[in-house]
Amino acid sequence: MAFIDRTEIAVIGGGAAGFAAAIFAARQGASVLIIDKARRPLMKLRISGKGRCNLTNDCSDQEFFDNIFRGAKFLRSAESRFGPHDIMAFVEDLGVPLKTERGRRVFPVSDKADDVASALLKEAERLGVRIRKGTVTGAISVNGEITGVRTEDGDIECRSMILATGGLSYPATGSTGDGYAIAGKLGHTVTERYPALVSLKCEEQWCAEVQGLSLRNVSLTCRRGKKTIYSEQGEMLFTSDGISGPLVLTLSSVIAGSDMKELRTEIDLKPSLDRETLDRRVLRDMKENSNREFRNSLGDLLPRSLIPVIVELSGIDPSKRVNSITSEERSRLVSLLKALPVTICGTGGWNEAIVTAGGIATREVDPKTMESKLVKGLFIAGEILDADGATGGYNLTIAFSTGHAAGIAAAERRNRKMNAIAIDGPGGAGKSTIAKALAKELGYIYVDTGALYRAVGLYALRKGADTHDRKAVAALLPDIDVDIRYVDGEQRVILCGEDVSGLIRTEDVSMAASAVSAQPEVREFLLETQRDLARRNNVVMDGRDIGTVVLPDAKCKIFLTASAEERARRRYRQLLEKGEEADYEAVLEDLKKRDYDDSHREIAPLKLAEDGIEIDTTELELNESIKAVLKTAKERLGLD
Ligand code: DC
């Protein structure tokens, strides 16, 4: 399949997390492509903080974690390496001076979120990060490892993919949560998602009567059964169908995902006065207003629009003279002022939610690197993760800090040294059986390079070419697309898009493979495919020239051999078991001829690498051979 583009790191989503990831990956020298479906990236950042961009909170580590609702433990490592103060230094270094406001909220001095967005864009551009408009529909992974990204316009090849598509809040900015499906298809658990930092709907009809009323210095308490799950003092306001304002936004995050029916919520309108003090205060007010009607007596105690509501809820006759109010009635009034109940029955929608609660389960993501524990080369950052915090710059801090971790780790991944075990040797020494067992034991992938030569042989046969004609075979190579894939851990050989794994095991193809494998052009042609597999994976690779030519730097090179007679006996037994006719002498002769050809051909002859270890299996049972090879491999690779 042809790719429409290629990059080392594909960042899906051009938001705060995506840009942080892209910039830090590019600063490590990686080639980075951001793919975003919006016409203009960083849309949500531009409208955040009412267009002023509250980009972080100038707080201590402890304060930071106190303000995280979900994912605090997971965020620890990333935050310690790129926390609020690093974010501030990063943005100021990009030429955006910052200021700190009430609640330690950090904003650009200009009060313009666009300035932060422009600075990020400029830095990305300076570093050569490319931005491509497109819709990503999925990832391409081979053997549990990312190899590309699927977009509506075609496939893009990459080594790593950073999923930073954001959550579900503010869908108008392009944040529609596409990444959840992509991660889900790759096997990730996505927890239920709820709008958070959002207004709450209440059953009480009277909220509409006081809509727009803002209360300062009240306290909001929410209980589940006997347990107080939230109690804070501050500001809130009433809306047409419920409550909002800072206290309420925080409460919405605390209760995200809860069964609302179990919650009991109340507003203490006079949190600075305890019940007795308030009672004395009410009594004093009543004495001063003793001849008034009750409904006209609360002006000193409550905002005007709230009075009719409290009067009605108190159950006291509004036209009753204050001096005839009973102490039991007064007690009811005091109770109401200390605990005005509101019944939460829902939340404002995604359009007004500041952030998403829930997302990709963080237990499946490495907290140091943001790399998926399920798919190699997949990194996840930002709001898409099941991590969220309070208003005040905490959520952008999560985005920057996880984006930073992902970007650095994805860039470092390019240099990650893979382990390679090269197993060479003559035919019939048990290379493939032993290599497979070794790969399984070590969790590496097994690469049968002979299959690649066989695929080329098959192609030449299909084209009717003389497989011994070097020129004719070389002329075919530009049209050959041969690759190795893994399906359920089994190697499959893909020839021009067709799985030919079964078709290459015929005698004709063996002969053709033997012929083409002696041709320098063919060997050269297959070299990169083999090396590329070893760059991307820990491999056990078998063949004839793996230790000498293909992977000369492999730490472990094993030359597996056995006497010609023993190998012939094994092959002979195999043939009999398959029910085929066999002649031991003929098998032996064939084998000796192939040995001779393989080790005397001009190019990449079969031989023991200088630093290779020869293991002779003539006297060994299969399981003994496996043990011996495994022991050697572990020693060489420093495993255990
Ligand atoms: O291991 P096999 O029989 O599937 O290999 C097919 C042919 O390819 C065989 O003739 C040897 C050759 N070969 C090679 O020259 N170099 C390799 N690395 C692997 C196989």
Protein traits:
640 residues; alpha/beta; seven-stranded antiparallel beta sheet; 31 strands; 39% helix; binds 2'-deoxycytidine-5'-monophosphate
Question: What overall form do the CA principal axes indicate?
Answer: elongated
- Please work out how many helical segments DSSP would assign: 22
Q: Strands of the largest sheet, in order across it?
A: 19-18-15-16-17-14-20
Poorly predicted regions = none
β-strand number: 31
- Give the class from helix and strand content and strand pairing: alpha/beta
Bound molecules: 2'-deoxycytidine-5'-monophosphate
* Helical percentage: 25-40%
Radius of gyration: 35 Å
Q: Describe the biggest sheet?
A: 7 strands, antiparallel
Head-to-tail CA distance between termini = 40 Å
Average of pLDDT: 94
Beta-strand content: 15-25%
Describe the structure.
The chain has 640 residues and is an alpha/beta fold. It has 22 helices and 31 strands. The strands form 8 sheets. The chain has a 7-stranded antiparallel beta sheet with strand order 19-18-15-16-17-14-20. Strand 2, helix 1 and strand 3 form a beta-alpha-beta unit. Helix 2 packs antiparallel against helix 6 and helix 20 packs across helix 21. The radius of gyration is 35 Å and the shape is elongated. The model has no long low-confidence stretch (mean pLDDT 94). The site of 2'-deoxycytidine-5'-monophosphate has 13 residues, from helix 15 and helix 17.
